[in-house]
Amino acid sequence: MKFLMLGNEAVARGAYEAGVRFASAYPGTPSTEITEYISSYDEVFSEWAPNEKVAVEAALGASLAGARSMSAMKHVGLNVAADPLFTASYTGVNAGFLICVADDPGMHSSQNEQDSRHYARASKTLMLEPSDSMECLYFTTRAFELSETFDTPVLLRLTTRVSHSRSLADQGARREFKRAYKRDPQKYVMMPAMAQKRHKFVEERVLALKAFAESTDLNAVEYNDKRIGVITSGMSYNYAKDALGDKASYLKLGVVYPLPETLITDFAANVDECYVLEELDPYIEEHCRALGLNVKGKAYFTALGEYSAKLIREVILNEPPEKTAGIPGLPGRPPVMCAGCPHRAVFYALKQIPGLIVSGDIGCYTLGALQPLNMMDSCVCMGASVSMAHGMDKTGSRAVAVIGDSTFIHSGVTGLIDIVYNKGSSTVIILDNSITGMTGHQNNPANGMTIKGEPTRQVDLKKLCNAVGVDRVFTVDPFDLKGFTKLVKTELEQNEPSVIIARRPCALLKTVSFGAPYVIDKEKCVKCGMCLKIGCPAIFKAADGKSAIDSTLCAGCAYCTNLCNFDSIIKGGGQA
Amino acid sequence: MTSILIVGVGGQGTLLTSRILGSLAISMGYDVKVSEVHGMSQRGGSVTTYVRYSDERVYSPLIDEAGADIILAFEKLEACRAVKYLKIGGAIIVNTQQINPMPVITGAAVYPDNTLDLLAESGAAVYAADALSMAVSAGNAKTVNIALLGVLASHMDIEKEKWLETLKITIPARLLDINLKAFELGYGGSY
Prior knowledge:
heterodimer; A: alpha/beta; Rossmann fold; 4 domains; 7-stranded mixed sheet; 5-stranded parallel sheet; 19 helices; 22 strands; B: alpha/beta; 6 strands
């Protein structure tokens, strides 16, 4: 029976049907739902790991022990997991081992637009790329078989539009799978003598995979009008089909590493003009050029952002775009921190300290960089806030690091150890909102709940910071504006490291309820506009120039009452 | 091919609406693609989801500029922003709710006071409805998405019974009554 499934849901279903028994991941848009859906299957052990490196290593361990296993991550997560990936390519697998990596062309929710296909080539690992949910399911089940057949980890490359589109997919039954553990130090202990032999195996495996890529049904040729030929994969195939239909012939690559050289060469020879349609880098195009094929790629299509059927029609068919007049000059609507968000309070407090550099990190709190708070100086990658603040401090600038609870566990604590060990004196603020927020509320080691919502041992952030050598650790509520600001100022003056744990749960958690929305007492409001400075989406200036609160948006958190010197913000009587 | 663009502000319930439309199209035997937005843009930013269905195979899940048959807008300003995606002669169903974006709150920009006129001037067939009031009448402001779906249903050539069947299988049982009420208010509401 066919179901309307999210691409990520279909990957999870495919893994389930293939008998996967172990899944470990760190959340990251657009990959998160893969592991969330897997956690709904009781036959699979699933977990949130502290970071992607740990997740891939745990899954590799499960594979060696004889369980089909997997890990899913966003593109930048694979940077973190690159270390185990490159050597897992040497060890190979026992039971099938799948790594899903979701790229984000257009950067809907990411800090860069890197192309993960380069990792497949660099690590000499088989990479498949589905284009819709049906293929997500089918390619995933195939990936486990191929992993075992060729003794290789398999990368499944997704992009935002494949991961986050729903389309029809067939569901099947689960087939249990188990292999016995077989001790084999020559294969699994990678020190020079053994690794040299395994590298030879890897090079032979590449040749075997190339032969496979020439004949597999995962690659498909579709001949229509042969004046235009299109070599493509993943979501770009859909855009091309919408744009060109039968006016073009297609080579749709389901295997993106290694590429089928004969198939590509033959296809290019059979069409008059050959285009390569691929978002991001000219990965397939450069391979075609190395084969001596004169294909049309990035000279016509951008390396930036997402493609569309419209773009392809314009470039290849030279069709002028259909246009409907838009409405110019509209105010933009960037994302904002939610009403009741504890992060807002942290950034507003930091804004009261002149000349401060705020070294930021990855999470909802990155929104503190936007107006009106505008209180972040840098944001690079997971954990970088802490180590970068150390570099700034040591070279004479006064910086604080701002990092979420989950991000701190991911890779902030190593930066903190750097600070302590190398006699730094930075101040690190951990925004502990009891959840991994931006990716849609995942539990993590610091909130004491597993992926299935079961209670577990909780990392005690204060003890952890104490243990690595930070003596000055404080746990405070950021909604205490005066107290919190004073503490940050005091800690900035210390000649030793400090950690301030700003603890208040995410306002979107079901356990958080503030009660009725607040209202403005119009008699008392003097139009000073102080309450507008915190950037709460519920507070706005009404036509009379006085402040007003949108009762449908106000969370009732009362933080704004900290700012009003005229007691004009009062608890309303509306429904909670 | 029918292409419906759903626009709104992160947190308004556009995702559920697109899933319901997807289920409806499947129940009628169509091929369907629905594209969603997750992650950062869900945090109070502009959000766009796409629903496309056809009796032939649907390839791209996205709708290009001038490609939507219908725009379902959860907020007035977002309706204006989405107009360029509408086919010539297409229809916009717009909730008259106003949610101020941050540039308006900070005073860096002004919320246009004539959004419905701007929409009408664009040449679109505009159907405005106060879905928020309908949702409140139904008993919960959060049913605004289903009230708006009711408005959409009243303008589409699909039997009402089909809509109701789809709501019954896509909405959790404990929330069904209040959502059916919101749908009815949208379907029969005068505006």
